[in-house]
Fold:
Amino acid sequence: MRRIAVEPLTRQGFLPFGQVIEAHPDAERRIINRGTTERFHDLARVETGGGRPTINIFRGKAHTLPVIVARLERHPKGSQSFMPLGGQRFLVVVAPDQAGTPGMPRAFLTAPGQGVSYPAGQWHSALLALDGIGDFLVVDLGDVEDNLEEFELAEPVTVGGG
Amino acid sequence: MRRIAVEPLTRQGFLPFGQVIEAHPDAERRIINRGTTERFHDLARVETGGGRPTINIFRGKAHTLPVIVARLERHPKGSQSFMPLGGQRFLVVVAPDQAGTPGMPRAFLTAPGQGVSYPAGQWHSALLALDGIGDFLVVDLGDVEDNLEEFELAEPVTVGGG
Structure:
């Protein structure tokens, strides 16, 4: 079984795979509500192809490292954004697309409070909550047909540990 | 000055003003990711008029009760959804529309972890975080013209206290 290391999640490092959602100093910041609110503007690229996005809560089972990932999935018709609702960390496993199937996976560990957004078509693992059962706000394109592709890896990867 | 009481936020009581976003037992629940994730599906009605929604973080200044509300606002072209990122409570002040201006305001106090979504055109106050400075994930239609109307109340309302 292949083993891959866990990398810290940074906006720069994650650029090939999507956006990191966090209140970061380089964001476009707007002071609104007569000075009582700071808006960190447009932190993820929501793609719906003109369809209506849904707001959902995903309650993810707790995982502990090392985690074995045997399959990846992608949503060809829309983006999918995950934000932890209690600051909890999670593991983000993604892979580049290679002619319609996932290439070599990479794994990123979020810092507390970081979320991620996957563009349409981005290969990623199922939700891998750490730190106990976790609730995540998820924005995606719900209830459209043919918006889930799954791929069983020829060889599962072990993420972390070792 | 008018004083209004603070009501607990419930899905039923909030129906005239929008949706409460929470992982509630009456939601459509789907077991996904081969049993490792429970999806509470489509908890808010996102309205964008075909435009692209944005995902933002609003960092709200801390308020304490009683709070004086002197103006309300609304977004005619899209919904706006607020979800606390640390479970923190906030105050939701809304009013029915009466011929283009807000009627008598009502105030709701969220339970820890509850969020709300306002439909397009719903009069509401600026973000009123309680429990300290709070970060909220906000899904709305950003960067469209003429999507903010503000209304100065003839008589401000005092919310809570007394």
Remarks:
- Residues 11-14 of chain B form the longest helix (4 residues).
- DSSP finds one helix and 17 strands in chain B.
